[in-house]
Amino acid sequence: MRTVHIETHRAHRIGWLRAAVLGANDGVVSVASLVVGVAAGGATQATVLLSGVAGLVAGAMSMAAGEYVSVQSQADTETADIGRERRELADDPEQELAELTAIYVSRGLDESLARRVAEQLTAGDTLAAHARDELGITETLRARPVQAALASAAAFAGGAVLPIVPALVAPASWVSPVTVATTLVALLALGAMAAYAGGAPVARGAARVTFWGALAMALTAGVGRLFGAVL
């Protein structure tokens, strides 16, 4: 009796993992830096909290809008390419079959086998076969602008909540240090999880994300102190 060998790979995680990590990391770093910078300028706790919430809303909307525009452009290109392919199939199906055959030959099949494969695949759904093998477009990987926008906004908001909580519950004099500590721990966890899910070294991934987050907070704290002293 043959056993089925099931392999698991990390490549299928690339798309959603990138969006989730980018959104959450951006939320944590952006809002934490904003909170620390405003607090370093001598603002009241209420002002710090308001700044953090405003940063969360603005950042989430910015992420959603940017992701939507970007992915919608990709979707428009895919739609145009599929429309063109549909017209070419209607105008010259034999030439399109030859193109598909040539693709399979380039992947290692001999001419006769490539021709049979092309004929068999196009017998079912011709457009799907050409979209997949000629254009590299599949239903699984099709661009989905609304889904991408909502996912990016949610990831950003989820990350941005972490530095807002200290501004809400910590004593006024402790807002900056507690926010910095909370953010560094969150960045360590995010970097480690992203590295683990992607199969990369965990320590290196965590250190890389934490370093850039700490640098961002240090710079904004310096700006806050500078302008706070001037004002």
Walk me through the structure.
The chain has 231 residues and is mainly α. Mean pLDDT is 80; it is low at 9-14. The chain is built from 8 helices and no strands. The chain is elongated, with a radius of gyration of 25 Å. The longest helix has 47 residues, at 45-91. It has one domain (15-230).
Layout of strands and helices, then pairs:
Elements: H1 14-40, H2 45-91, H3 93-106, H4 111-124, H5 126-133, H6 145-169, H7 175-198, H8 202-230
What's the short version?
This protein is mainly α and about 230 residues long. About 80% of the residues lie in helices and about 0% in strands.
Task: Give short descriptive properties of this protein.
mainly alpha, 0% strand, 231 residues
Q: Can you summarize the main beta sheet?
A: none
Structural category is mainly alpha
In sequence order, what are the helices and strands, one letter per element? HHHHHHHH
Question: DSSP strand (E) fraction?
Answer: under 5%
